Amino acid sequence: MILEQIMPRGIRRKVNGYTISKNTVGMSPAKVFKLARGNDVLYLKASHKKYEGTTFDVKREKDVLVWLTDKISVPRVIQYEETDDHRFLLMDEVKGRMTSSVTIAPKRVVEIYAESICRLQSIDISQCPFNSGIKYRLSELDYLLKNNLAAVGDFYEGEVPFSQPEELVVYLKTNMDEEDLVFSHGDICDSNIIISKDSQDINGYIDWGRGGKADRWYDIAFCVGSIREDLGNEDYIKYFFDLLGIEPDWAKITYYLWLDELF
Ligand SMILES: Nc1ncnc2c1ncn2[C@@H]1O[C@H](COP(=O)(O)OP(=O)(O)O)[C@@H](O)[C@H]1O
Ligand SMILES: [Mg+2]
Predict the structure, then answer these.
(1) Cβ neighbours of residue 119 under 8 Å, at least 6 residues apart?
(2) pLDDT band with cut points at 50, 70 and 90 for residue 1
(3) Between the chain's N and C termini, which has fewer beta carbons within 10 Å?
């Protein structure tokens, strides 16, 4: 994507004079660009219209960000604009570093995840218009698979006990459980939590395309997945649940980790 050629006029005007660099951290189909002018840093995120209505759509992310203003620390939306093919979200920077790029004690990482779960699940959802529940996510998955947009490559590299993506989808559809809805980030991981380098306090959260009402175990499952993958010691999982003051529900954790497998 040659950004300069497709950037809509209003956004082009806002970023005039900024140096643009493409971000290579993210894994999602949305393209992310960092724009810098002196100490002033902005981020531009663009998604193709073929992702319209999915959790990769930056229009959805923009709406979630606006709703979350003053509820939890998130980037401020500066401008949102569309062209025929793309949608663009220009936002300010959450200052600090991704948790993944700070040298940090494993225990502190676990504390950051537990604190994040508490903060997210304390958000009042009584007026929340965003549904990130299983039914929506499975219909999104149907759309992604049908249009060759699902992360099928990751599926084959993953560790799920299914040989074909379709088998996993059947499993997910036939094993839906009742949902205990809370506010969910939807992709809580160490590259989406921004902390202060020195104090290691949480400064804010980014990457909100999947934000909305979802089961209480959804974000917890992602934290468990990350703790396991990055820290590799079951004692840290125990510490995580001690901090949360609950016992792990392994059936739910596994279900939600599998749900994420094709995204
Ligand atoms: N508003 C922001 N403030 C600070 N860093 C950001 C911001 N938006 C994006 N980034 C940086 O760009 C990376 C990718 O953006 P993200 O929204 O997480 O996209 P992806 O969906 O590709 O993961 C982040 O991990 C972070 O390093
Ligand atoms: Mg991200």
Answers:
(1) 72, 202
(2) low
(3) N
